[in-house]
Each structure stands twice: as C-alpha cells, then as structure tokens.
Amino acid sequence: MISVLRASERHHGRFRKRQVWRTFAPVDRSDGLSDGFGALETLDENRLPPFAEVARYARDDAEILTYVREGAVTCEDSTGHAGVIQSGEFQRMSAVPGVRHSETNASRSDWAHVFQIRLRCSTAANESGRERKRFSAAERRGGLCIVASPDARKGSLRLHGDTRMYAALLEPGQHVVHELASERAAWLHLVQGEVTLGDVVLTAGDSAGFMTERAVALTAREDSEILMLDVGQPRAHLLAASDLQHRRP
Prior knowledge:
Elements: E1 2-5, E2 11-15, E3 18-22, E4 40-48, E5 62-70, E6 72-77, E7 82-86, E8 89-95, E9 101-105, E10 112-120, E11 129-134, H1 137-140, E12 145-149, E13 157-158, E14 164-170, E15 175-179, E16 184-192, E17 194-197, E18 200-203, E19 207-210, E20 215-220, E21 224-232, H2 235-247
Parallel strand pairs: 12-13
Antiparallel strand pairs: 1-19, 2-3, 3-4, 4-10, 5-8, 5-10, 6-7, 6-9, 8-11, 12-14, 14-21, 15-20, 16-19, 16-21, 17-18, 17-20
C-alpha cells in the first residue's frame, strides 16, 4: 500500500513573512493522518525571513530533528544552551516539558529554509539534550545516507525511539531501493526535484507513505533531494493511510 500526499494538500500557515507547510496538521481533525504516521508526529517545511522563528508547538515532549537546507539557525533553550545550525547540518534535540526552546534565522539579510521533524517521545527520552552533525553533499549523493538512528550507526545522530531517518541527493536516472523489515513502514518526502514510484510521479513538496510494502523503490527524473523515515507500523495509521489512499489517489 502506497499513499500519496500532494504538496498542495499540506496545511499552509503564514505569520507576517514567515511561512510553514505542515505535512501533518493537528488542527485539521478531518484528516485521517492529522496525528502523524507511526512515530512520525510532524514534518514541517519552514521558510524564514531574517530573525523569524521556526514554528512552535504547544507540547514539548518529543525528539526533534532539524535540517537546515539553506541559511543558518540559532538555537537556544531555557537551560542556557545556545548554538548555530549551519546549512547542510542536522540536529537532534530531546525536548522535554519545562524546558523552553527556540530556533531563529540567524541572518540579518538572508532567508532560511528549514525542515523540522517531531518524533513521538519514548520513555527513555526524559532528559533535554542536543546533538548536531553535518552530512556533506558527497555523503548524501547517489544513495540513502542514514542521518539518525537508535544505535547511531555509521556516525548518525542517536535517537531514543525506534526510527531511522535517511537523506539523499539523486541525479536523473539514479535508482534507490530501501528494504522494509516486517512490521515496518516508511514516509518519504521530496524536498526538491521529481521522482517516480512505479507509475506514480512525485514533485517537490509531495510525500508518500509505504505500508505493508517490502521496499521503497524510486527513480529520480531530475536532480532531486529526499528525506525518508523508517518507522513502526501501528494499525491505527494503517487504517488512516488506507483512507488517505482512497481520498487522494
């Protein structure tokens, strides 16, 4: 089962010049996937003018993955931690209740393009903390580069939950296959470009959920960038995704 969510179907919010596109929108209770996809709670694309903040959520009990695609972002929290995430860097943060945090465009003149992903917090993620790493274009080019995992394999960021996140930069004609273990699912987001999943074409901003599939297989039709999360497969999200497939072929 492969379910497609088009870029135009995301929830688009605007505050002054800041814009955010939310793949999963908790405010839209009519959407069967408003609560996310397995451990994946949110996947937001932010475009920030100078000094604008990344869109926040009321709840802080989550592991948050931030990818700065363009620009630089200053991150601060109420414990006194501060740092800057540069273009091409990924950060894992354990956000817990009682610790306030913010991420703000660090530039006085340039916009920032930022992706933020929230993962449902496991019982082990009870301490606030951050880890940041650059995964170069060379590491991500031509195939799936693991950027976050529970065992920090291949130098990836360490997650508390059972989720694996991958990133890839693909040239036209390059083919990628990611096998899914039993009871696993995957969510693919196309950051840029155009890819095919069999006879389905995804363009920038589109996403696809893979349930009860043996593998994720795709081919780039032009220079493309993807993010993919390998997650568990709760039955509730199988039913929601089945509804999505009927409503959004």
